[in-house]
Amino acid sequence: MTEGTTPAHNGARYSGASFGEWLEGARPHTWANAFAPVLAGTAAAQLGGGADWLRAILAAIVALALIIGVNYANDYSDGIRGTDDDRSGPLRLTGSGLVEPKKVKYAAFLSFAVAGVAGVGLSFMSAPWLILIGAACILGAWFYTGGKNPYGYRGLGEVAVFIFFGLVAVLGTEFTQTDTASWRGVAMAVAVGALSSSVNLANNLRDIPTDREAGKITLAVRLGDANTRYLWLSLIGIAVLLTVVMSVGHWPALLGLIAVPLWGIAAQPVMRKAMGRELIPVLGLVGRGMLLWSVVMLLGAFL
User: Fold this and answer.
1) pLDDT at site 84
2) Which of 4, 88, 163, 196 shows a CA-CA span of 20 to 30 A to 35?
3) Residue 249: CB partners within 8 Å, gap ≥ 6?
4) What is the predicted pLDDT for the residue at 86?
5) Residue 15 pLDDT > 80, yes or no?
6) What is the pLDDT of residue 88?
7) What is the pLDDT of residue 89?
8) What's the confidence (pLDDT) of residue 29?
9) What mean pLDDT value characterizes the chain?
10) Which residues cross the membrane (predicted)?
11) Which of 280, 289, 294, 292 is nearest to 27 (CA)?
């Protein structure tokens, strides 16, 4: 398969995508996975000595550019492999035949470049060795579905999300502002990582039939439908439990439980064994709940 063709549109002329379709291809419903860890890390920084808003903004630019980049990279890589020929999720630019694959790849690279520039600036403001961590994040974003042996096709997608959009993003945000990592920062990192992983897991739960047929062996495909649902519920439970733990010595952390109703609503289609498009709202509900949780945790840090 070449960049100029997709399995579903071999030889077809590309009609091009509107701004709205490019925006949909960037998958805004996943952007909570970028902002939540920065807000949580800034909350940990405030509790540990004081937040630095300039560094927080730079961290947010890095996180947002990375997640847009990984979304376009996934669109490109899955599209040229044919994984997106039959899917129930949001629009894919490459798989739909709207946009020439190389243009989607360039959009991914541009996003990674923005993340790199902001990340280098942030690193020189705190610790230059963080540039290496940033480079690892960009490589991880590309090789999730890119390259000859993408780790996203080996059941490691949720692990990567937990590491990069949980541990690295939260603790990195805290470290760049305070030069240290606290136990509450670690707890927030694990909570955000679990929630971000649950978003990815719900997406892969929805796509189990088509991914299995296309040879994309995600964690959901490995575990099977029932075990994937149990794991999803466990990840949500971990976030709730850690919220309670973080209230020890700092009662405002309990305000984070305000997000539980959203996660409860998201759990309904998972528990009733909904399939396909019926699982799409789960991603948005968990993301909004995670964003609400992180905002409340940041506000609570100032109380």
Assistant:
1) 58
2) 88
3) none
4) 56
5) no
6) 56
7) 60
8) 85
9) 91
10) 53-73, 104-121, 127-144, 156-175, 181-202, 230-247, 253-270, 282-302
11) 280
CA dist 229 and 273 (Å) reads 8
Amino acid identity at 51: A
Angle at 102 between CA 94 and CA 11, to 5 degrees: 60
- Determine the pLDDT at residue 3: 55
**Centroid of chain to Cα 223:** 21
Q: Above 50 in pLDDT, residue 179?
A: yes
Confirm if 200 and 70 have CB atoms less than 8 A apart.
Answer: no
pLDDT winner (highest mean) among 13-17, 90-94, 112-116, 141-145: 112-116
d(CA 11, CA 60) in angstroms, rounded, equals 40
d(CA 44, CA 156): 28
Question: Domains of the chain, with CATH numbers?
Answer: 19-302 (1.10.600)
d(CA 245, CA 190): 12
Please tell me the pTM assigned to this model: 0.89
Give the Cα separation of 79 and 89 in Å (integer). 13
Token look-up 């920065």 returns 38
Nearest to residue 13, comparing CAs of 25, 4, 1? 4
Q: Which two tokens stand for residue 40?
A: 């949580």
CB-CB contact of 266 with 232 (8 Å)? no
Q: Which two tokens stand for residue 96?
A: 């739909």
Residue 236 pLDDT exceeds 60: yes
Using CA atoms in the order 171, 190, 145, 116, what is the torsion angle rounded to 10 degrees? -10
Distance from C-alpha of 241 to C-alpha of 179, rounded to nearest angstrom: 27
Residue 1 pLDDT grade (very low, low, confident, very high; cuts 50, 70, 90): very low
Q: What three-state secondary structure class fits 159? A: helix
List the structure tokens of 173: 């945000």
Please, what is the end-to-end C-alpha distance for the chain in angstroms?
56
Instruction: Calculate mean pLDDT across residues 20-48.
Output: 93
Amino acid at 291: L
The amino acid at 188: M
Decide: 214 and 83 in contact? Cβ < 8 Å.
yes
Q: What length does the chain have? A: 303
In the numeric block, the tokens 């575990």 are attached to 223
Cα 88 from chain centre:
19
